[in-house]
Every structure is written in C-alpha cells, then in structure tokens.
Amino acid sequence: MLVAFAGLPGVGKSTLALRVGAALHAPVLPVTPVERALGRYGLVGDVPEMAAYGAVAGIAEVQLGLGMSVVVDAVNPVASARGLWHDLAERAGVPLRVIEVHCGDEAEHRRRVEARLPDEFLPTWEQTLVRRAEYEPIIGPRLVVDTAVDTDPLPGVLAYLR
Q: What are the phi and psi torsion angles at 70 (to 5°)?
C-alpha cells in the first residue's frame, strides 16, 4: 500500500509518519530532505518543490515494485502534488491511503513551528500562515488526525490502514 501524509509544516506529520513506517516495517520517504538537497544545488522555488515530489514518487515506485508498502511524508498542499500519489498507486496496483494531519490548537501549532531548530528550508510561522492560505482542501477518502488531541493517534491510523 501507499500511505501519503499531508498537512502543514509543524503539525506533527513527520513524527507520525515515522511511527507508522516503523509499525508497518515500511520505508518512510520524506520530501523535505530532497527539497533541501535541491536547494543546496541552487534549485529553489516552485519547480524544485515539484521536482522533489517527483523524485520521491520515483523512489516510492521502486519500493512498491519490490512488494513493499511505502509511507510518503509531505505537505502535499495542492491537488497536483497529491495527484502524483493517486497516479503512482494506480500504476503500481496498490491501495492509496491518505492521512491528513493538522493541529487544531493554533497556539500549539505556532509553538511547534517556532520551536524547531533554525533551518533555511523550514518555514517560519509567517510562512506557514501563507502556506495555510494556499493549501487546497483534500477531496476524497482520507483519515484526518488532529495532533492537538491528547490521545495517541497511532492506533487509529493503523486501524485505518488495515
């Protein structure tokens, strides 16, 4: 199966994606390190961001071809980015499970974003607000997880994936 995480920076999706990958014994393929690598070579802006998604999709396709489940960790802010995962799952003949993560407590979300170690590729709170305004609603089946809730989301996520 292909598991695609989506959600704004700082909501906890990477932490949850790593936990899901460990539980499934599946590789976790984060887009952010690929974006960073492209940035180190001077590739910045919208095109490299989509290039990073494309690179991760290519690696995911190899893993799916080996019969492994794959967990993709990405913001997936727009339909065109999410479309990559739909197309890949269809080509590979595997189910796609989308997990949209958000933090329902805005003060906590801001705290998380601002508590990160400084990194030129991680957005500031102001940049996160811009991304939130540009974030296109996800249409279609998905599990929505609120990381501001005190309950551990992992059991619910794993039940959704079964």
A: -135, 140
Asked if 153 and 103 count as a contact pair (C-beta separation under 8 A), the reply is no
In the chain, the N- to C-terminal Cα span, in Å, equals: 10
Q: 53-92: per-residue pLDDT in tens? A: 999 999 999 999 999 999 999 999 999 889 999 999 999 9
What is the phi/psi pair of residue 107, to 5°? -65, -40
In sequence order, the 6+-apart residues with CB closer than 8 A to the CB of 26 are 3, 20, 68, 69, 70, 71
CA distance 43 to 45: 7
Question: Residue 42 burial by CB count (10 A; 0-12/13-18/19+): exposed, middle or buried?
Answer: exposed
